[in-house]
Automatic annotation (TrEMBL):
It is found in: Nucleus. Signal peptide: none annotated. Residues 79-149 form the MBD domain. It comes from Chenopodium quinoa. Keywords: DNA-binding, Metal-binding, Nucleus, Transcription, Transcription regulation, Zinc, Zinc-finger. One of its GO terms (molecular function) is zinc ion binding. This is Uncharacterized protein. Its main location: nucleus.
């Protein structure tokens, strides 16, 4: 399996919305994780990864594989793993990922140049239709594919809704 997985990390939840707090990518050579400073940089790396160009430490300025890892993938943070092939966000739009309160999954939405939230391809199409001034942007440049939450890094004290399958025979937790 390819070891060039690109990983977003999420800070431990505080009050308010749980958005992605930190971004990290794993080096394809030494497997250390490097922090990525911002979302744009992440999108470039993600696109390169989808072209099968692995990330390596020396792509960051002044860093090499000999340097210690920036961050360890441990349970002090909740980690989410990005899916490959997310298109680069069109100029003027912002892609946002919000973690559900029960940590079950993330939801994706875009904020448009006029500050409107769009939550599906249908809404994007409608928005583009209503805003003909936004040119050269196609619905295919939007993706509502969300990263997967790494089960082992979900805080133990988070109340999870039992899944439909388990709900029938689940008992209240011991107190
Ligand atoms: Zn490295």
């Amino acid at each position: 399996m390819a070891n060039t997985g690109y990983i977003d990390t999420l800070k431990k939840p505080q009050t308010g919305t749980n958005t992605i707090g930190l971004y990290a990518v794993q080096c394809g050579e030494c497997f250390k994780r490097r922090l990525i400073s911002n979302e744009e940089e992440c999108e470039v790396i993600r696109r390169n990864l989808s072209l099968l160009e692995p990330f390596t430490c020396n792509k960051k300025p002044d860093v090499s594989c000999a340097d210690p890892a920036d961050i360890e993938k441990d349970a002090t943070r909740t980690w989410v793993i990005d899916k490959p092939n997310i298109p680069r966000t069109p100029v003027g739009f912002k892609r946002k990922l919000v973690l559900r309160r029960d940590f079950s999954k993330l939801d994706a939405h875009y904020v448009t140049p006029t500050g409107k939230k769009v939550r599906s391809s249908t809404e994007v199409a409608k928005y583009l239709e209503e805003n003909p001034k936004i040119k050269g942007v196609s619905v295919t440049e939007f993706s509502f594919t969300v990263p997967k939450v790494v089960e082992e890094t979900i805080p133990k004290d988070i109340e999870r809704k039992p899944s439909a399958k388990k709900a029938k025979d689940s008992k209240p937790a011991d107190t």
